[in-house]
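Quick one, T. Sequence first:
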Amino acid sequence: ARNVSERKLRETSAWAKRKYANARRAVNAAPTAEAKIARVAAMVDSPLAEVCGSGLVILSCVVFAFQTLPVSPTAQLGLGIAEDVILLIFSVEYFLRWYSRSCRLSYLLEP
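Structure tokens:
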């Protein structure tokens, strides 16, 4: 049993060394433009990004609904700032999607 555990420890240690070496090589290597674009595309197309986008749409609707109610000027200011922040997030997301599609003009013009 001792030989088996020692062998597993050596195999695990070798695996960890290879994994660390691969990670270090990846960090030291300059990422290509295609790799950066692929990383951005994977990020904006992920299910988490879709759920966050849907949540922002719902939050935007709630903010819009509260802006129609008679609330204090401070609350109106806060709702306006929230709406501006949501708009900024949507704009950044749209730019990232455009960037991940290699900045093609057709992506901006087609629905």
